[in-house]
């Protein structure tokens, strides 16, 4: 049961939770940190007005994410993953015993799973920690996707709210539908490239008389 004070929320800082796993024989400890409370942009409601009569429009108001207003959101369930690797490596590449990777899995965290917190009263919510295993292949895939999303956020200027909406798309959409959509998009790009290539080859193979005739028709 986690209790968050008002001062922590008013400061606008994230609250982290540290997880440790200790080996019984060697005494080695691996650690991981994850966000228990995250500060995210709070949507601002902007009302629309009609330029003709100056009254409010009947259309629904669109929430716009502000730049200064933030709201704390608690994570009710934290997924702690211990990465295991069953790959057989050559003996000459083995440098000795190594510690497994442990991390807090927030890749599939969706917007509807977060608990909104306020700065006016006491906030108390239960945060459950689940410890599980994850294969090294899946871990590498998630790290690659996470790096891709972060790179897109830096290029396009997306904030944490838009990133959550993107993750909602991946988490709540049927994976087969996503695969079909990606395949159709790739095929569409291939066909467009082939059509452009055929146009270029056609005009490169035309004689000057045909080109002059086409230009005269266009003019």
From TrEMBL:
It is found in: Membrane. It comes from the Eukaryota. InterPro entries: CLPTM1. Pfam families: CLPTM1. The chain crosses the membrane at residues 176-196. The keyword Transmembrane applies. The keyword Transcription does not apply. Coiled coil: none annotated. Keywords: Membrane, Transmembrane, Transmembrane helix. It is a multi-pass membrane protein. One of its GO terms (cellular component) is endomembrane system. Belongs to the CLPTM1 family. This is Uncharacterized protein. It comes from Alexandrium andersonii.
């Amino acid at each position: 049961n986690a209790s968050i004070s008002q001062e922590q929320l008013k400061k606008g800082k994230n609250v982290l939770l540290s997880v440790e796993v200790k080996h019984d024989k060697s005494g080695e400890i691996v650690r991981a940190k994850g966000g228990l409370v995250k500060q995210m942009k709070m949507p601002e409601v902007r009302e629309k007005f009609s330029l003709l009569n100056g009254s409010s429009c009947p259309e629904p108001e669109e929430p716009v994410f502000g730049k200064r207003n933030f709201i704390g959101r608690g994570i009710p369930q934290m997924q702690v993953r211990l990465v295991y690797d069953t790959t057989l490596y050559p003996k000459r590449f083995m440098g000795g015993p190594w510690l497994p990777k442990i991390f807090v899995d927030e890749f599939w965290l969706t917007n509807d799973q977060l608990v909104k917190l306020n700065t006016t009263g006491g906030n108390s919510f239960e945060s459950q920690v689940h410890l599980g295993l994850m294969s090294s292949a899946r871990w590498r895939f998630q790290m690659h996707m996470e790096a891709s999303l972060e790179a897109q956020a830096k290029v396009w200027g997306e904030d944490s709210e838009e990133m959550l909406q993107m993750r909602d798309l991946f988490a709540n959409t049927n994976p087969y539908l996503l695969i079909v959509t990606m395949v159709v998009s790739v095929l569409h790009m291939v066909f467009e490239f082939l059509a452009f290539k055929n146009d270029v080859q056609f005009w490169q193979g035309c004689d000057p008389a045909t080109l002059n005739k086409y230009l005269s028709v266009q003019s």
